[in-house]
Amino acid sequence: MQQKNEKMLLEIVKTLQKLRQEKPLIDCITNRVTINDCANILLAAGGSPIMAEDEREIDEIISISQGLVLNLGILDQKIVSTMLMAGKKAKQTGIPVIFDPVGAGASRLRDDLAQMILNEVRPDVIRGNFSEIRALSGAAIQSRGVDAAAEDAVNEENMQVCGKMVQELATKYQCTVCATGAIDLVSDGEQIFYIKNGDPMLCDVTGTGCMCSALTGATCAAGGALNGAVAAVVLLGLAGEYAAEACRKNGDGIGTFRVKMMDAIYLIREKDIMERGEVYGGELL
Amino acid sequence: MQQKNEKMLLEIVKTLQKLRQEKPLIDCITNRVTINDCANILLAAGGSPIMAEDEREIDEIISISQGLVLNLGILDQKIVSTMLMAGKKAKQTGIPVIFDPVGAGASRLRDDLAQMILNEVRPDVIRGNFSEIRALSGAAIQSRGVDAAAEDAVNEENMQVCGKMVQELATKYQCTVCATGAIDLVSDGEQIFYIKNGDPMLCDVTGTGCMCSALTGATCAAGGALNGAVAAVVLLGLAGEYAAEACRKNGDGIGTFRVKMMDAIYLIREKDIMERGEVYGGELL
Amino acid sequence: MQQKNEKMLLEIVKTLQKLRQEKPLIDCITNRVTINDCANILLAAGGSPIMAEDEREIDEIISISQGLVLNLGILDQKIVSTMLMAGKKAKQTGIPVIFDPVGAGASRLRDDLAQMILNEVRPDVIRGNFSEIRALSGAAIQSRGVDAAAEDAVNEENMQVCGKMVQELATKYQCTVCATGAIDLVSDGEQIFYIKNGDPMLCDVTGTGCMCSALTGATCAAGGALNGAVAAVVLLGLAGEYAAEACRKNGDGIGTFRVKMMDAIYLIREKDIMERGEVYGGELL
């Protein structure tokens, strides 16, 4: 486990190259809090965002898109039916569907709607914080709104146990599951990866989870579900590290952190990934 | 009046400490223009934002929240009934309700809806610019959209007269009223405080009023209505001063100001409050 | 064509002066992705934004506004009927109406709704990227979501041909048409201007088109449709140039670019426009 997975780092490099060349169009049906950040991170990474969510045009928009991101952040009576329609169309078309179950565990409504999307759409990737992933797994949780609960922090000690829960959820829904946190866990049910990039300041900005899901849409369009899910958390983790280093150097705070994080996604080079990417695991289970 | 109120400055320090320790979860039902800024300022100050507004989950979300912020910024047919439901539940639960009557005075609709919320919810804090507070007081006004009218600027000369209007509104609705401007006025009907922190650049960024209201949700959750309302305007005022100083030093504009303002909220120390907080008044009326 | 149009540059200077003095109130009915950026650029330029869109207050809000911006960015069942109501009221009142047909060409729905607004409101200015303008012209296009298609890039070679399409659309709808891109084209059907300010980084931030349309609301309120449309693209183009220069100097990316762009709109001086404004054309057709 102490050996970096160089093979996966190379896959991430290839995924980023392809993303920047092909500029996939990603439709995001996403919440109003972080919608601008989601569009901007897609552009910064090399993708092309569209935030189309009117049922009257969903078919046409999905047919010109290369990926779809569904984010449960702000609910209303209609948005979930639109997500179901878009998700089913995307699955027919064969483009990757990323699902972010924002706030699963915080209310019965969110749990129910998340299950509906899982069952009816069958997303290719589920991306949430560990509290949300735990809630989808049906484990008893103590939710703390839309942020992960302190007791759900993944660390060196509980990493294997948490990884097992991620892997089981992936097996259950035959998809890739990505649980983000201090250590990110990604599994397609067969392999499991542990990603140790990132910085605690990422938790002090709203929407880094949503941004990760949006970015996953683009990386999966370029590199497939498993590589794409790992690539997105490595890219965002590295961006967080560079931004935090810049802030600490100059005594800046969270406003500057956000700006520098977006700078880093835009500027990241292949050698940054190879030298600083902290991807472990990957062996067959 | 020329003597700083050191006792209140100490209360602000204590409020900020408690906020950072307890990380209160604040539900904001707020407008789409500044929703991201509201979430980010809550996080920067040490709170935890949730922007839940679906009536089907309001009860559950309020029951795990420590504060509720209602912001009248963008209207639609449904949002006010949701605010009424959330507000009533919050009052039952005993968590502080902050009401921001954005654009009161700009249209009959906004005046009517604001009165409905005041009467049916009985918020703990009303936070608006002085034009909005004047409109709620029923005084004839010349509104200028969502920004305060020039003739509503509070200065050393009219400060006492304006303060009286704020105090009367507080008495009428048995709550704390906070009118922000060049001089901020906060009264619970018994005491009145005059806060002279801030910088004119705060008016050149959209949503500083909304951000102040969101922040007030967290400071009131930590320090109660009166101390919390004063704390929020002092924190935002100081952040504006630091940001403006940074911009003037480097010849930067309003984009940099926003970033530095968020930095300052995140980095502010207790000694900044004690040394630079400009809180006056507070005597019993 | 190689001679700068100094007369128009002087008009832009006058327009900016008037905008900063009169601080026109601009109502924007605009999409959720970039609504905060639109409000902030209006404030940065000297205007006053209001994002009112509830039909119950539209009449009152339009009657206190000096301009109206309609942006087709995110659709729902109701927004277009509100736009029609607001647009007709604005035309009665005599304030300029700016229409941004976001994503025209990307779906049949958007094409139909755009035509409805053109025919029923008769906007004073249509502002879109060249793919969108081409779609409104009824030319066959290969759309690429909400961003301009590569084959729709305007350059020195096709500038005259593209300009003709812009001029014909302006004649057809008796309005000013502004097609933005590497070279911006503005025509009122009689004159045509070519604006060469800007930087490719403007395409790597979401919402620069929306921001341009919002800004056009304020510049048209101050300077009339034709001068206002040219002024907005020159201001945004110069802001892009200054921001890109700052980023290249310090090795910064797109996060910093956005901040510096907003700084530049706020700080721009009359001599910047006269010295660096790249406005060509303007002769009677």
TrEMBL record, chains A, B, C:
Class of this enzyme: transferase
Binding residues for substrate: 51, 207
Keyword annotations of the record: ATP-binding, Kinase, Magnesium, Metal-binding, Nucleotide-binding, Thiamine biosynthesis, Transferase
Named cofactor requirement(s): Mg(2+)
Biological pathway: Cofactor biosynthesis; thiamine diphosphate biosynthesis; 4-methyl-5-(2-phosphoethyl)-thiazole from 5-(2-hydroxyethyl)-4-methylthiazole: step 1/1
Gene Ontology molecular functions: ATP binding; hydroxyethylthiazole kinase activity; magnesium ion binding
Family recorded in the similarity comment: Belongs to the Thz kinase family.
Protein function: Catalyzes the phosphorylation of the hydroxyl group of 4-methyl-5-beta-hydroxyethylthiazole (THZ).
Protein name as annotated: Hydroxyethylthiazole kinase
Source organism of this protein record: Ructibacterium gallinarum
Gene it is expressed from: thiM
